[in-house]
Amino acid sequence: MFWVESHYNSSGWVEKPAALMATGEHGNIWVMDSRLTEAQAQALAEKFDIIYPAATNILGYEYGGGPDGDGGKDGDPKIQILVYDMLDADGKEAMVAGYFWGKDFYEQSVLDHWPTRPRTNLAEIFYINAGVVIRNRDWIFSTLGHELQHMVNFNMKRVKHDVNSAAWYNELLSAMTQDLIDEAFLGIPLDNPNNTIKARMPRYRMNYNQIGVTEWDGSSNAYATAVAFGAYLLRNYGGADLLKNILANDKTNIESISLALDEISPGMDFESALLRFGEAMIFSGSLIPDGANTFDRTITTAINGFTYTVYGFDLWNIFGQPLLAPVNDPNDMHPHSVTIHDSSAWRNIRGDFSITLEKPNDPNVELYLMVR
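Now predict its structure.
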């Protein structure tokens, strides 16, 4: 028996039975209302057995997990993965692939004091939308790694160090996890629309100025920003080693990323890395100056017998050029964001050419001139 919301994101609760349809070395696949076939459930268990050791090797473990763990809240060393129909208030499939919710760490007596009074399943558990499993297996396989990071993050940060992770930071780390496992471990290459880079970068290149790296509103633009900035960090600042360092320290958010960057590249911090993010938006393919940051860089890292690779991609030639605003467009910037401006008068110039730039009045804005 498991507690689930009567409708997704409704704060109404019902307790319903689920059947254990597949089990692997690291996960149990529970199915509510039996929409999945045994073969579909078994495929989830098998993929999770690939994801779990590779991911936890760099992320750390869920509460009660690991070789010396006691099984956590439910006493079971395996993760519980509950697959059920996530429906909205109109009875239509909710626009969500899955989620982890830290409420399941707490006793009901604690949750009764929360404003929405959610119900606990007292387990290391995350939830998967049955409709997406049936319709789009590769996206769900990638989602398993995404939600596992959330579960581990809760233990590594909230439980162990009593610090809270902001949503943008937590989602950034899940996006980085997907980037590391999609192609290298799950065989979901960049030309597969379910690859996290392939799925999110087209939106980011056109909407990157709509939301900052440290903002979160749950929109598609926010997820795209997390994927893009995470891809940039992995390809320019240490690959899997960077993600490992971020999860291992006792900080969260900007401070956590700065500490991890400094371990990879002494003196580097979040703000310094952000200042060079625009380079990756401009330089790709054959047009990469020496020393420039770029998405078009493949990084391979060996950690404890596992090999992690993030594959470079030519942003302009695969996804198209980023949105280029007119040079005199006075649009406001979001916190921790980039905006790229261009002028047709600057193109196809031969001979001497002069540009005069006016420094921004806002001391929080850095202005760069990049020539592609």
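The radius of gyration is 22 Å.
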